[in-house]
Amino acid sequence: MLMVVLAVMVWCLGWWVNSRLANSPASKTRAVQLLVPAIFGITVLVVWELLVRGLEVSLVILPAPTVIAARFASSLPVLWEDFAQTILKGALGGYVIGCGAAFLTAILVDRSDFLRRGLLPVGNFVAALPIVGTAPILVMWFGFDWQSKAAVVVVMVFFPMLVNTVAGLRETSAMQRDLMQTYAATYWQAFFKLRLPAALPFVFNGLKISTTLALIGAIVAEFFGSPTVGMGFRISTSVGQLALDMVWAEIVVAALAGSAFYGLVALIEKSFTFWHPSQRG
Q: What angle do CA 258, 234, 140 make, to 5 degrees?
């Protein structure tokens, strides 16, 4: 019972410190903006640890953060192999192929009314297909190695990226396009100097959405068949063995990889679209 009381006290203390920081004159500084979520995260972990130990929660139900950290540290070689198989090969490979193909297809769609009217409705239909239904089919088509996971990722990221890019390429106004025509600009001159810069915020929206979809697709696809390595494979087998600390260790790796991937794309977006109102302030 003492640990439960301590958990309540830690939560109240974290709440009080964050409230003081958020309402202080230095609340707009970068240091405080980083410190507030860090304190919140540490508070959650400490409360989690105290409650699990104080209430004697079973390891099968919810392991304590220190147990997960110990399993993480002792399983680094296995976690790295799973990371390389799922993230570097399946997710990243499918992400590059899917987003690259969608970008090139968007340029074709932009130049063809036939494709725009025909392909985009099909894209909306395909994007609505459940991944648990399409993943087993693609695994059967492309085999059990990472290539089938990359194929699942391609299907998941292609149409969100396509729809965003097409919308971005149509963002310029008629007056801006008329101005380029008065300069006798060719299609590609107007594309690179006017339409592509205007489309960049939409393109990066598609890329950021696809980072999450790629990770989900690669991990879920491994539930339907994979070699004896991979994050999805490890999660499914560890659940069967009631090794929930290993499951949580894989979840930590996936969360860190997803956050880093999204943050990297957002950082690149900021350097390319610094002129856009969404990047100011």
A: 90
